């Protein structure tokens, strides 16, 4: 993929300095997360270490070819939210809101306080790799008399076997993914956006998730989910052939979406009590990977999570080493006509349900060029033939068009509203 990275923003703001003071040094060889310099907006770039060693000083520029929060390394915390436009807000109201949100996103990701409705919640923190990624739901186009510009990939997702979706916790006119390596920084950003939207858009739903904190392991590695599995080993990588065509909207999409993407969101509850009743070897057969190192079943010891998956391998008894209904077999691009997505999943744990079982699982986020060719065919197959589906419940859903990145002086969605 031929990508041009946006210039790194250097210098340390007062807020970043405040975050550094007293923070101490980040320990952990190879963590690659400390520093007072901006992240490179190049595909798949990590945080470069720099003098000071403060995790909170890492910055991701808001402006660039693509919105931040797609290609960057996954942060430790996420706030997800959707808003619905107020009746009568119309296109002018939406334009004003997106201008305010874009200015705020640029300031907060640079480690500066918001111009309006600053609540001092994150005043003594650095930017902490903060990213804000905005998306548009299908209903937004009807509410703003832009139905003729609604992209074709925003058609409703079909119903899948086993779905138990709560409409109140999905969809929405406007979506925002707020990632950061500090929970307070993410919550602060969401609260500021919510107050700035008052009178124009109201919060429809909100949820919070987490992943492994950078530096928590001796070296960078793929995070584990609440089932204890390394999750994301087979994610497409920017260096892969066809990566851009997998993730970003192509020529078959409207011109205003060029450089943008589609995002599918699913809140997936894991039936952890049932899962944890399985012995580890049974769990491994459901997934098709070893829990210890994430390597596919049949791989030699020490092969690691990125070892090639041999779906044809047979055991001494002539049976498949990776079972026919193993998750990695059913989800493999080779088994789905090449369909693939760039996933950024976060765990959630929201206490107990009325029956005493954990309300916990995965906030599934997948960026792709077109859900009709990515998420939909894969999920259709998973819902019918994946052994893992017995331990999952899809409880909320949404699909959003993610506009391209914002140039200096512009605002998110400007190509749609003014093109």
From TrEMBL:
GO biological process, one term: iron import into cell
Principal location class: other
Catalysis: reaction(s): heme b + 2 H(+) = protoporphyrin IX + Fe(2+)
Top-level taxon of the source organism: Bacteria
Cofactors named for this entry: heme b
Database matches in InterPro entries: Dimeric_a/b-barrel, Dyp_perox_C, Dyp_perox_N, Dyp_peroxidase, EfeB/EfeN, TAT_signal
Ranges of residues in domain Dyp-type peroxidase C-terminal: 222-406
GO molecular function: ferrochelatase activity; heme binding; metal ion binding; peroxidase activity
Location of this chain's protein in the cell: Cell envelope
SUPFAM superfamilies in UniProt: Dimeric alpha+beta barrel
The EC number(s) this enzyme carries: 1.11.1.-
Record keywords: Heme, Iron, Lyase, Metal-binding, Oxidoreductase, Peroxidase, Signal
Cellular component terms per the entry's GO annotation: cell envelope; cytosol
PROSITE patterns on file: DYP_PEROXIDASE, TAT
Cofactor annotation comment: Binds 1 heme b (iron(II)-protoporphyrin IX) group non-covalently per subunit.
Domain annotation Dyp-type peroxidase N-terminal: ranges: 67-210
Function per UniProt: Involved in the recovery of exogenous heme iron. Extracts iron from heme while preserving the protoporphyrin ring intact.
Family: Belongs to the DyP-type peroxidase family.
Alphabetized NCBIfam families for the sequence: Dyp_perox_fam, tat_substr_1
Identification of the protein by name: Deferrochelatase
Organism of this sequence: Streptomyces kaniharaensis
């Amino acid at each position: 993929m031929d990508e041009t990275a946006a210039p790194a923003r250097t210098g340390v703001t007062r807020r970043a300095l405040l975050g550094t003071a007293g923070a101490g040094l980040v320990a952990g060889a190879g963590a690659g997360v400390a520093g007072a310099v901006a992240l490179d907006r190049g595909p798949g770039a990590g945080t470069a270490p720099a003098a000071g060693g403060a995790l909170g000083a890492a910055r991701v520029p808001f402006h660039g070819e693509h919105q931040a929060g797609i290609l960057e390394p996954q942060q430790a915390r996420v706030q997800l939210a959707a808003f619905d436009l107020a009746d009568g807000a119309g296109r002018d109201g939406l334009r004003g809101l997106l201008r305010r949100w874009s200015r705020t996103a640029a300031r907060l990701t640079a480690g500066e306080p918001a111009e309006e409705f600053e609540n001092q919640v994150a005043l003594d923190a650095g930017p902490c790799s903060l990213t804000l990624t905005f998306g548009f739901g299908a209903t937004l186009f009807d509410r703003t008399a832009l139905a003729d510009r609604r992209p074709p990939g925003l058609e409703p997702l079909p119903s899948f076997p086993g779905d138990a979706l709560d409409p109140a916790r999905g969809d929405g006119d406007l979506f925002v993914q707020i990632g950061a390596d500090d929970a307070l920084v993410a919550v602060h950003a969401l609260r500021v956006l919510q107050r700035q939207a008052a009178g124009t858009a109201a919060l429809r739903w909100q949820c919070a998730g987490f992943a492994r904190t950078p530096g928590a392991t001796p070296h960078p590695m793929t995070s584990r989910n609440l089932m204890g599995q390394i999750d994301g080993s087979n994610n497409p990588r920017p260096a892969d052939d066809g990566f851009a065509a997998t993730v970003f909207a192509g020529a078959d999409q409207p011109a205003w979406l060029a450089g943008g993407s589609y995002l599918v969101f699913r809140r997936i509850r894991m039936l952890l009590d049932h899962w944890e009743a399985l012995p580890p070897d049974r769990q491994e057969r459901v997934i098709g990977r070893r829990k210890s190192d994430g390597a596919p079943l049949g791989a030699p010891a020490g092969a690691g999570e990125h070892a090639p998956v041999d779906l044809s391998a047979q055991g001494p008894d002539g049976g498949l080493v990776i079972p026919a209904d193993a998750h990695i077999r059913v989800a493999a691009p080779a088994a789905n006509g090449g369909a693939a997505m760039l996933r950024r999943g976060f765990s959630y744990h929201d206490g107990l349900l009325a029956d005493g079982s954990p309300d916990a699982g995965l906030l599934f986020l997948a960026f792709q060029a077109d859900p009709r060719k990515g998420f939909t065919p894969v999920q259709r197959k998973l819902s019918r033939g994946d052994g893992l589906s017995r331990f999952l419940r899809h409880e909320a859903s949404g699909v959003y068009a993610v506009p391209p990145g914002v140039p200096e002086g512009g605002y998110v969605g400007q190509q749609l509203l003014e093109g």
